[in-house]
């Protein structure tokens, strides 16, 4: 029996949760099947070599994350008075930032977000943008770090809308 985990260097992203693994049960079965690991052998590995089982779960998690992150083009991160919109290409990461200079507005609420939509050009709303070059081999790690900080993957409608509003 060969396992990919024998040459695995360690968890790059994060282990999938039990719920995520449950949802990807068939994909995990396929992952084990590629390694010619049967259900009985998997049960044996879990009991007799728990560290190998852990490495297999980590490797599978990294493969899933890698597949997801490679497809990401846009991210959004909302906080009480700031909004960060990211557009990610193969070599650049662009940011559109919005900061509200009002303590009574919380853009994570429907009321606060509506206020922002209606007052985008208000003096208390600061729009800014920046762009940085990213290394191809660090692209997915950069995206993952943003997700770990609370960013959500999106289709980019809000980024594209705000990009048109920038001076």
UniProtKB/TrEMBL annotation:
Q: What is this protein called?
A: DUF6495 family protein
Query: Pfam families from the entry?
Result: DUF6495
- Tell me where on the tree of life, at the top rank, the source sits: Bacteria
